[in-house]
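Per reviewer request, we include the raw input and output of the structure prediction for the construct analysed in the revised manuscript.
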Amino acid sequence: MRFGGLLVGLVLVAGIAGTAVALHSREENAQFVSQQQALAPVGAAQLESLILTTSDPRPGYAGRARAARCFSSVHTALGDPWACVVSYPRSPRVRYRVTVHSDRSIYGSGEPEGHPLNGVLTVRGCCVAGGTGP
């Protein structure tokens, strides 16, 4: 019986120690949280500038984007999702739905206006500068 009480005591101590370690690991990483809270907002002009560096993704088409216009109805730091209309050297314009990731890289998918494709066009880039907001 004496060893039974000792065994129960050891199990309780191990359980309490495990609980303390688990609770400690769930605490916020203060440095990560402060970096995320200090994100400069992404502005439409900064996103448009990055999109202007992309090439026409349509098969058989070539050339860099000539004009881009982006809109967001969300007022968060990254402004996701964005709607961007991009003009390339050859018509028609391409309408994208663009996501800005926390590392400021972008990914967008879309299709030409009025000319649906069998598939989706994509645009990618890195990295959007901080701006004054959407």
